[in-house]
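chain below, 370 aa
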Amino acid sequence: MDTLTDYVLWMSDFTIAETGFRDVDALILCNLAYYNFSELFEGAEGPVYVRDAQKMLDSGNVQVEIAINDNKYTDLLQAIVHSRRFGNLRMSDYIDIKRADPPVQYAVETFHDDNGLSFIAFRGTDDSLAGWYEDFIASFSKTEAQEMAKEYVTRMIEKDPERQWMVGGHSKGGNLAIYAGCTMDPELFAKIDRIYDLDGPGLSKEVMGDAPIDTVLAKTICILPEFSVVGKLFDMKVPNTRIIKSFGKGVFQHAPISWGVDHGKIAAAEKHSPISTWFNEFVENWIECSDIEQRRIFFDDLFEAVSGGGSTTLSELAGEGLEGFKRIQSRLKNSNEVTKKIMYEFTKQAFFASIFKGQNKPEIETAKTK
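prediction:
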């Protein structure tokens, strides 16, 4: 099984126009959305090309805005900037917003080739607690990032409706891509050829109402790793869903750079892992038995407890170590009965999962929230 970097090196001399757009190309562009390209766009008077990121490599200033990060992102970018396939793509309309109150984490850019193809890539959740909190808000409310995504896609297509448009993103980025498609003007949506949802959470039916979700899902390609948790939240049963192999273990398979390639195509897997399937059933049971207000109360309490020590990112939170975990537990004891009930059930089920190792999943107890 090859890596994404192997794919870039292998396809380096072939343009997208010469081979056609491949699903793995979408993986590459959605990974590129995680790089902080602010310095490339600052003061830029002409086109910004992907190959211009070489100066970030030269200065050692390669910032990757993702919670699960390692040096593979530097290797990937090195291969990308020297590739004819990706290095010559133009980038435009780069936006990167982070705000704690009210919580917003939103980033996007558009890639253009010289043959009429444009790909809008939304960044997924970064390392900020605000970004993760905003993800969970989507279970009971529309988010500001979703509305920004709709406006962005609308504006880009209105500027040049004759191009071949694709939209995609990983994690929350996939959610934003689908939300934009469901809520934008139908005539403009018709200009979109494909939507790529890479392990992104779905849309809550209570929040979306009568939005034309089925019409959008018909154009959507959903790619999930074998161990998928985020991508199974509010599972919309996308008809064209593929499961991909990963070099990661457990929840670390969510990192898109860990996904595998087989002869230029995604490395297909047959099914999700047992523990992943079991955990998704547990979460679905809780969602089905909780109304919107109960979800809001739970996530408000949880993130108040998590951020109570002053941490603003997952990295800072992890740095608190055992003391940070004890602090969160202590603060949750003072939360409402709904939160305590769910946290108790989750801890109990996680304990059993560690015993059974996914071989024989335990009986799931529904987290009823009366």
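Residues 349-370 have pLDDT under 50 and may be disordered. The two ends are 48 Å apart (CA to CA).
thats it, cya
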